[in-house]
Design a protein that fits this description.
The chain has about 220 residues and is α/β, with parallel strands linked by helices. It has 2 domains: about 1-120, Response regulator (Rossmann fold); about 125-220, Orthogonal Bundle (Arc Repressor Mutant, subunit A), CATH 1.10.10. About 45% of the residues lie in helices and about 20% in strands. The chain has helices at about 10-20, 35-40, 60-70, 85-95, 105-120, 150-165, 170-180, 185-200, 220, and strands at about 1-5, 25-30, 45-50, 55, 55-60, 75-80, 95-100, 125-130, 130-135, 140-145, 145, 205-210, 215. It has a 5-stranded parallel beta sheet, sandwiched between helices. A 4-stranded antiparallel beta sheet has the order 8-9-10-11, with helices on one face. Strands 4-5 form a two-stranded antiparallel ribbon. The relative contact order is 0.12.
Length: about 220
């Protein structure tokens, strides 16, 4: 999961980034609504965490512009404003969920995971592709009930394939959603990660479509 955090409170942004990174979330952060607007329109993210009280304008302004431009990625609003009128303004601008400061970082993580899961059409927190299961609450992966040990990059790559299954995902899309924009890998690095996942999950579980990309398949349905 790749998330843009827009928060001008530096200690809070650092603390929240650390917790999310520890949970396997790839975080890119900015304190500026102007920069966030540029990033949202030029990069791919799975979600945005947006503070409303930004130094260069109200967050609802940027959010409303994104929605008017057809940018529909999930947005979780963070704010110290407790009045219902302020919350209503956030929802009216296009927010998907709302957390009031101070908050538990664990709550932000749970809400964030739920937003991303639902944006891909999944209601249940445990996503299954055949006998492969991903618990979106914990990030754990099991195969036929057996726990699978994955590196952080393998976990992010597999999680994206699970969320998007059975859609074909291009190398470029994987790179944009799984890796930092300043360290996006070439296709060979992604091929290596896919090869390692196949060794752990089975060689036929991740299908390669030449010139298109990869997709995770249900082996029972494919047989």
């Amino acid at each position: 999961m790749k998330v843009l955090l827009v928060e001008d409170d530096e200690p809070l942004a650092e603390a929240l980034s650390a917790v999310l990174a520890e949970a396997g979330v790839l975080i890119e952060a900015t304190a500026s609504g102007t920069e966030a607007d540029f990033l949202v329109q030029t990069e791919r993210y799975d979600a945005v965490i947006l503070d409303l009280g930004l130094p260069d304008g109200d967050g609802t302004r940027w959010l409303a512009q994104w929605r008017e431009a057809g940018i529909d990625l999930p947005v979780l609003v963070l704010t110290a404003r407790e009045r219902w009128a302020d919350k209503a303004a956030g929802f009216s601008a296009g927010a998907d969920d709302y957390v009031t400061k101070p908050f538990e970082t664990a709550e932000v993580l749970f809400r964030l995971r739920a937003l991303v899961r639902r944006s891909h059409g999944h209601a249940h927190p445990v996503l299954r592709v055949g006998d492969l299961a991903l618990d979106t609450h914990t990030g754990s992966v099991t195969l036929a009930g057996r726990p699978i040990s994955l590196t952080s990059q393998e976990s992010r790559l597999l999680a994206y394939l699970v969320h998007t299954a059975p859609r074909v995902v291009s190398r470029a899309e994987l790179a944009e959603h799984v890796y930092d924009r300043d360290h996006e890998p070439d296709s060979n690095v992604i091929d290596v990660q896919i090869s390692r996942l196949r060794r752990k999950l089975g060689s036929q579980r991740i299908e390669t479509l030449r010139g298109q990309g990869y997709r995770l398949i249900d082996l029972d349905e494919a047989s």
